[in-house]
Amino acid sequence: MADEEKFRAAIERVTRNAERCAERAGLALQPDRAQRDYVLQGLARNLLKYGRAYCPCREVTGDPEKDRTNICPCRTHRAEIEQSGQCECGLFTRKTGSEPPMDADKRR
Amino acid sequence: MGFTIDVGKAGPGFNLKGVDGKLHSLKDYADKKAVVVVFTCNHCPAAVKAEDRLIQLQKDYAARGVQLVAINPNEDKYHPTDSFDHMVKRAAEKKFNFPYLRDETQEAARAYGAVRTPHVFLLDQARQVAYRGRIDDNINDPDDVKRHDLREAIDEVLQGKRVSAPSTESVGCSVKWWGKDAHWLPKD
User: Fold this and answer.
1) Which 27-46 residues of chain A touch chain B by CB within 8 A?
2) What pLDDT does A100 receive?
3) pLDDT tens per residue across span A49-98
4) Given pLDDT bands bounded at 50, 70 and 90, which one contains residue B187?
5) Average pLDDT over residues A103-107
6) Which CATH superfamily is domain A3-103 in?
7) Which among A34, A59, A85 is the nearest to B137, CB-wise?
8) Which strand (E) or helix (H) includes residue A92?
9) Domains present along chain B, CATH in parentheses
10) Could you report the per-residue pLDDT of B23-58, keeping only the tens digit for each?
11) How many CB pairs below 8 A link A and B?
């Protein structure tokens, strides 16, 4: 599979995972599209590079045991959202009820 | 009042150590028509991707009296690659053509209300904040940028005009604050 196809497939995979996690947890995805795309692409790159969707905003130490806590959704995302309304990288946010559905956004 | 300094307010001064070992203050650039203060770091993918853009921007605008100043405010206990020593290495590797300063106490970052890295603040000749936010609309792909927000703002300032789009959202990783939970973000 060409690199571009692999990257696109990785983005689709991390996006689906993020949507599923958000729905299950009663959260929303970042409404700012630029920030959301930045994080999803970072997750996709880490997935391709390390085999795991590590949070792109945290350093990957290379020690799988240490890095495990940063696999998206990371272990601390709930506490972060409670504290400041969004997780460290800004992918998951508190629901406000006015988020556009992800599909509508993709159609833009 | 929000966390980030409002457009129109006076850009806060600073006096910070640069990777050249010298202290740099905002007053050093009194002769410049505009100063671009960029809060950035060594580790964040967005900040890393922004580096070439910042280098090019300084090249393009230096002769027109614009000075870019990069400031790294991140704590380096949980993010050791944001230490001063790493900043020195990075600046040398990438041949930064602008000062790269260490905001160890995070006083400058707090004064400006930097939220993510990179987060830019364009100061006009009167050193008022004329623009704040992102560099452009596509941090991931420089070849697919539709809006060069910072460049357009600089052009307007140099023409003596009011910036038509003075505020955008910064994109990147959150600033890493000392003493807070490692993942703290301002509520607003």
Assistant:
1) 32, 34-35, 37-38, 41-42, 45
2) 58
3) 999 999 988 878 888 998 999 999 998 899 888 887 888 889 999 987 66
4) low
5) 41
6) Ferredoxin thioredoxin reductase catalytic beta subunit (3.90.460.10)
7) A34
8) strand A92-93
9) 15-174 (3.40.30.10)
10) 999 999 999 999 999 999 998 889 999 999 999 999
11) 62
- Does B134 score more than 60 pLDDT? yes
**Where exactly are the structural domains of chain A?**
3-103
Distances (CA, A) of B52 to A77, B112, B139: 31, 23, 11
Contact B36, B122 (CB under 8 A): yes
How many Å from the N-terminal Cα to the C-terminal Cα in chain B? 10
Q: Taking the CB of residue B31, how many other CB atoms lie within 10 A of it?
A: 8
Instruction: Tell me the mean pLDDT in the region B161-165.
Output: 97
| Euclidean distance between CA atoms B100 and B68, whole angstroms | 9
Chain A residue numbers touching B185 (CB-CB < 8 A): 80, 83-86, 88, 90
d(CA B121, CA A83): 26
Angle (deg, nearest 10), helices B84-94 and B45-61: 50
- Give residue A101's pLDDT: 56
A23-32, A88-97, B152-161: which has the highest mean pLDDT? B152-161
3-state SS record for chain B: CCCCCCCCCECCCCEEEECCCCEEEHHHHCCCCEEEEEECCCCCHHHHHHHHHHHHHHHHHHHHCEEEEEEECCCCCCCHHHCHHHHHHHHHHHCCCCCEEECCCCHHHHHHCCCEECEEEEECCCCEEEEEECCCCCCCCHHHCCCCHHHHHHHHHHCCCCCCCCECCCCCEECCCCCCCCCCCCCC
Whole-number Å distance between alpha carbons of A50 and A35: 22
